[in-house]
Amino acid sequence: LAVSGLGRTRLAKSVHDAGWSAFVGMLEYKAVKYGRTFAKVDRAFPSSQVCSACGFRDGPKPLHVREWAGAECGTVHDRDHNAARNVLFEGRRIVAAARAETLN
After folding, report:
1. What proportions of the chain, in percent to the nearest 5, are helix, strand and coil?
2. Is 56 left (phi over 0), alpha (psi -120 to 50) or beta?
3. Domain boundaries along the sequence of the chain
4. In the chain, N or C: fewer CB atoms in 10 Å?
5. Are 78 and 66 in contact (CB under 8 A)?
6. How far, in Å, are 36, 47, 70, 96 from residue 83 at the CA level?
7. What torsion, rounded to 10 degrees, do the Cα atoms 85, 52, 68, 46 define?
């Protein structure tokens, strides 16, 4: 199956969605197999808009802004590292909330 060729047709979205779905399924399977926790963070989560140091939401930034300082705390952030930290924190928050819900 020439997936790269299908990716250039009107079926492209379906092909890419199926590939992503398979990848996520593999991640979930591996997490269970190795005793790890897997959590999905909502794609609308504003990971690059929030300061990972103080939590202040600064708002959207154009993609060419690669480094910025938090408005409240002044911490200088690399856009990608800040977003990765925020996704990690959000994933941990989701897992903690799920565990607390199962205890109640």
Report:
1. 50, 10, 45
2. beta
3. 1-37, 39-104
4. C
5. yes
6. 22, 5, 13, 20
7. 80
Question: Can you give the pLDDT at residue 34?
Answer: 97
Q: pLDDT tens per residue, the chain (104 residues)?
A: 465 665 677 767 776 777 778 888 999 999 999 999 899 999 889 999 999 999 999 889 898 999 999 888 999 999 999 999 999 999 999 999 998 988 87
List 57's β-bridge partners, or say none: 50
Q: Closest Cα to residue 79, out of 55, 57, 54, 50?
A: 50
DSSP state of 77: E
Is the CB of residue 86 less than 8 Å from the CB of residue 47? yes
Contact (Cβ atoms closer than 8 angstroms) between residue 54 and residue 72: yes
Phi/psi at 32 (nearest 5 deg)?
-65, -45
Q: Scanning the structure block, which residue is given the tokens 């790269």?
A: 4
For residue 11 the two structure tokens come to 């079926």
